[in-house]
Design goal:
3-stranded parallel β-sheet, mainly alpha, 18 helices, 42% helix, 497 residues
């Protein structure tokens, strides 16, 4: 959609909002004045730009070079941002209008999930001082609630049915049921059991061919069209591939309170050379952190919980305070800006291949990441508040006091004293004198778990390895001098010859 057309739509939309609010005697003079100022400023700047363009054209035609530096302000973009910010300031009032419009009749073939969850996010009606208006809002909300219960029940979702099934304690919902049945001419045989009431309502509609299997109310409306929590919605887009609904997300997400994506502009983001490091997820990432921060590679304190980041190149990206969750694969996470992972939440992510040499990990959450951290090589050893459960901590004799404190804090971390020689650690005594060579081949995690499965040890000396309880399925032990004990119940037939 062209930005100027979008602005005209927004202008008309806001005019209607002010008109509707006056019906409910809601004072919106300050916002209306803000709206008028936005329009007036735009018109003045536009006239000025037109005048300057004409003068420049006239000078050029007369052979006079234009030596004046001219800033090409995008007035349409500025207008768009101002209008969208005003809509954000009016979000409770707009929510009120949407509630009233959605409950003007008892039409069930509409999508109400987005509105329903937005209203439930907080008691927005408390903003309005007029008691009569509050009563009207609460009454209309229960009408919306009944619609939600009926539509969900049709889709075999009984979440709200179970929550509100005790009708004796819900006089307002009872009143909505009564109005709904009167409107549709439905006579109920039971007015106490909500499940029976819903069955009778749906049977009535089925007989009247009002609701059928071809209704536009689809399950996707329940699971997706709810632009309240950005991370959740983007997760659903990627999971279910409902790309055709992406525009509805773009039109509603406010970024950093400083930038809002337009439809076509959002598409171009992924092709911006400065944002190539974001990969295919450019649009989704920018909807979380904003365009300005995206270009500056500044993710600090952003929440990427459930947002895939596997195709983002983290080279020189600022990530202090970022929240990740269960991320399987990172691209150059060991090259983040200033090697600083302070306050980063990486819980349950896969970090066993990350080299932490020269890093700062103060107060980071590295729980159950299988991270291998040699504290001798860290930039800062201030790690008492770093969550290290499920990590492998390598240390030297000079770090004994720090390790004592860490061991008291993190009972599920694995501590390995090396003094420069990894094979001196007690945990790996079973590997014998070739411990270091074996660990370099299979890794600390597999060595600690005594897991040699699928490893090719051909011609590596294993004669002093104690194979008690060691997993060796499909391992290649040819010419290794390995001493296996059949009574230990090894499945020797699966060892490669």
């Amino acid at each position: 959609m062209d930005l100027s057309v979008k602005n005209l739509n927004n202008i008309n939309y806001l005019k209607n909002v002010f008109k509707e609010l006056k019906k409910y005697q809601i004072n919106c003079d300050s916002h209306e004045q803000e709206f008028n100022n936005i329009i007036n400023n735009y018109e003045l700047n536009k006239q000025k730009q037109i005048y300057e363009d004409l003068q420049e054209q006239e000078n050029n035609e007369n052979g006079i070079p234009n030596l004046k530096f001219k800033t090409n302000n995008n007035l349409e973009l500025e207008l768009n941002n101002n209008l969208e910010n005003l809509k954000e300031h009016l979000k409770e009032e707009i929510l009120l209008i949407e509630l009233m419009n959605a409950t003007n009749d008892w039409n069930l073939n509409i999508d109400i999930d987005e509105l329903f969850y937005a209203i439930n996010k907080k008691d927005f009606f408390k903003k309005f001082a007029n008691l009569e208006l509050q009563q009207l809002i609460i009454s209309r909300y229960h009408n919306l609630l009944l619609k939600k219960i009926i539509i969900d029940y049709q889709l075999k979702d009984e979440t709200y049915l179970k929550k509100y099934e005790n009708l004796e304690a819900m006089p307002l919902l009872n009143n909505s049921i009564k109005k709904f049945c009167e409107y549709n001419g439905i006579t109920l045989t039971n007015t106490y059991d909500l499940k029976i009431i819903l069955d009778e309502i749906l049977d009535f509609f089925k007989n009247k061919d009002i609701i059928n299997d071809n209704t536009e109310i689809m399950e996707v409306n329940k699971t997706f069209l709810m632009p309240i929590l950005p991370s959740q919605n983007i997760f659903y887009i990627l999971k279910n591939n409902y790309r055709k609904y992406l525009e509805q997300i773009r039109n509603k997400l406010i970024l950093e309170k400083e930038y809002i994506f337009g439809d076509s502009e959002c598409d171009r983001m992924k092709y911006d050379p400065k944002l190539k490091y974001l990969g295919d997820n450019a649009v989704f990432v920018l909807q979380i952190i904003g365009k300005k921060r995206g270009k500056k590679k500044d993710f600090r304190y952003a929440d990427f919980n459930e947002i895939p980041v596997y195709d983002i190149d983290f080279t020189d990206v600022k990530v202090v305070g970022v929240t990740f969750h269960e991320t399987e694969k990172f691209k150059n996470l060991d090259k983040v800006y200033n090697k600083d992972l302070s306050n980063v939440n990486l819980k349950e992510s896969k970090l066993d291949n990350i080299n932490f040499d020269g890093f700062t990990i103060n107060e980071a959450n590295l729980a159950y990441t299988n991270a291998v951290i040699d504290i001798r090589t860290l930039k800062s050893k201030n790690i008492l508040k770093t969550i290290l459960d499920g990590c492998f901590i390598i240390y030297g004799k000079e770090d004994i006091e720090l390790i004592k404190k860490l061991k008291s804090l993190y009972s599920h971390a694995i501590f390995i004293e090396t003094n420069g020689k990894l094979y001196e650690a007690k945990e790996f005594e079973y590997l014998g004198k070739n411990a270091k060579e074996i660990i370099e081949l299979i890794g600390i995690k597999k060595a600690y778990n005594k897991d040699f499965s699928d490893i090719d040890f051909k011609e590596i000396n294993l004669e002093d390895v104690d194979f008690t309880n060691v997993k060796i399925l499909n391992a290649n032990l040819k010419n290794t001098n390995a001493k296996l004990i059949p009574e230990e119940n090894y499945k020797l037939e699966r060892i490669r010859k």
